[in-house]
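Students often ask why inverse folding is considered easier than folding. One informal answer: many sequences map to the same fold, so there is more than one right answer. In these notes we will look at a single instance of the problem. The structure comes first.
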């Protein structure tokens, strides 16, 4: 155990001591645990992922795991509940950075407590806000808006959803990232 810790400390010391212009790959096989904050400048690639916290309903006895929301899009999600004014409409104000970060917005909204069949987006998103109208005065609406990132970092470093295996990728053609892949896939699936 002591030698493993020394090896790990040595790897981190080496990584910190290397000149910034040199890029290296460090592979750790098995588990690694970081306590504290971890900042990654660049991208993080994973086979799966969760957050792990003490279960708020029974923190002394249970752990809660939730999966990340994943998509081929670099999507941001914003949501809330709004109360319609006396004319049955509401302006939803988004964070000041919304337009700088997002493009290609999409909307979802649903009335709460009673039907409001005439609800509609009366003002599409512009200047970090959008409007819903056609509802019942004083009614509540659950809303969601999504946007696709278009900030300078993601434009310079786009996520490419599907690539060919081979040189420059995690594995070569014919190899699997998950070595037991074929044990969990029906024989009729493409290989």
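Output (designed amino acids):
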């Amino acid at each position: 155990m002591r030698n493993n810790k020394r090896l790990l400390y040595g790897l981190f010391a080496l990584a910190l001591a290397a000149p910034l212009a040199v890029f290296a790959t460090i592979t750790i096989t098995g588990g690694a645990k970081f306590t504290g904050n971890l900042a990654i400048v660049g991208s993080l690639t994973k086979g799966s992922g969760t957050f792990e916290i003490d279960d708020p309903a029974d923190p002394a006895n249970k752990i809660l795991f939730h999966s990340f929301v994943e998509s081929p899009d670099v999507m941001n999600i914003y949501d809330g509940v709004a109360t319609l004014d006396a004319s049955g409409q509401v302006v939803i104000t988004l964070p000041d950075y919304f337009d700088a970060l997002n493009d290609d917005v999409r909307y979802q909204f649903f009335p709460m407590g009673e039907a409001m069949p005439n609800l509609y987006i009366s003002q599409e998103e512009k200047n970090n806000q959008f409007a819903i109208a056609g509802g019942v005065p004083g009614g509540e609406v659950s809303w969601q808006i999504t946007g696709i990132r278009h900030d300078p970092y993601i434009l310079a470093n786009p996520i490419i959803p599907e690539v060919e295996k081979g040189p420059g990728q995690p594995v070569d053609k014919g190899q699997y990232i998950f070595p037991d892949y074929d044990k969990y896939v029906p024989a009729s699936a493409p290989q």
